[in-house]
# Entry
Amino acid sequence: MKKEEKTFLRNAILLQLQAAYPASLPDYVLQDGLKFSGYKLTEKKLLAELEYLFELAYITRMHSELSEGEMRSKLSAKGLGYLERNGL
# Structure
């Protein structure tokens, strides 16, 4: 995947989380949303992108309160600032 494509993908993830803000979304919902946006990601690739965004502190990751095995992501204040600075 080219650098520009990765940027578009990461922005798509952040925009999905912005639409749900301040709520969090489970990984499978993010994957479905990306699929509808034209991205065909494996679970492994999605998790790698989420980890990258987490390390940048653009998102937070947590276990679901109802299902400990389910991970959820939430847009952080830093991620929200990134979107606003870039006009997204």
